[in-house]
Design a protein that fits this description.
Blueprint: H1 2-16, H2 20-33, E1 44-48, E2 63-68, E3 81-85, E4 99-105, H3 114-127, E5 128-139, H4 160-169, E6 173-178, H5 194-202, H6 204-210, E7 213-219
Parallel strand pairs: 1-2, 1-4, 2-3, 4-5
Antiparallel strand pairs: 5-7, 6-7
Helix pairs in contact: 2-5
Length: 223
């Protein structure tokens, strides 16, 4: 565990240290302009693989939780965010049926294998309330045949279809599946004005030109 944590510290710092301020500004737009359609202000939300907290710090929610193995993560989390430092495929210290939304962005591809992903999805299903949602963003290998492997810690290959299948096998019902959503990465990418980010979100036809990441939203059935 300690060795994994040090490894994550090095990767996060090298990859995101220089762009942290811009990433925060982009995620502030995303959490204000796009994701509230699935996340009500009175929700209990878990950010799975929270990184530096770009999502969980900005989303409006009644209760916020963040899970990651990187021990540096709490330094970047806003006051009031409960941090869980643990392996996501092990049992979560969360009561059954107590979470409204599990959100994750650019995380599943870093899991070591699909068995780990299956166990993680099972924990999300257990902890979500009936009718609760899992919202997942991730690189879509369909549109990144070579670039996908430019990150050393990418292990698990996914498309919107394969993740959707895993979710349905795990008991979820698919609600929204978008094969192309956001561009691939903010790492070593131009820092566009935030106006362009808002414009991009408002024009879904642009997603089919620039989008390289899927968006999958699934619900835990009510019965």
């Amino acid at each position: 565990m300690a060795e994994d944590a040090r490894y994550l510290q090095k990767i996060y710092d090298r990859r995101f240290g220089k762009t942290a301020a811009y990433r925060n500004r982009v995620w502030k737009v995303l959490t204000r302009s796009f994701f509230p359609r699935w996340i009500a202000p009175d929700s209990v939300v878990l950010d799975l693989g929270c990184g530096y907290g770009e999502f969980i710090n900005h989303i409006v929610a009644r209760e916020k939780l963040a899970m990651d193995l990187n021990p540096d993560a709490p330094k970047h989390l806003a006051p009031g965010v409960r941090f869980l430092e643990q392996d996501c495929s092990a049992r979560w210290p969360i009561t059954d049926g107590s979470i409204d939304v599990v959100f994750t962005s650019n995380f599943f591809e870093h899991l070591p294998d699909k068995g780990c992903l299956t166990r993680t999805l099972a924990q999300a299903f257990r902890c979500l309330k009936p009718g609760g949602r899992l919202v997942a963003i991730g690189p879509n290998i369909k549109y990144l045949p070579g670039l996908y492997w430019d990150f050393y810690d990418h292990h698990t290959i996914l498309t919107e279809a394969s993740l959707g299948e895993a979710l349905e096998i795990g008991g979820f019902a698919l609600e929204t599946v978008v094969p192309r959503f956001l561009p691939y990465t903010l790492v070593d990418a131009p820092e566009y004005p935030l106006f362009f980010v808002r414009l991009y979100l408002a024009m879904p036809w642009l997603w089919w030109i620039q989008g390289r990441q899927f968006l999958v939203v699934a619900r835990k059935p009510l019965d």
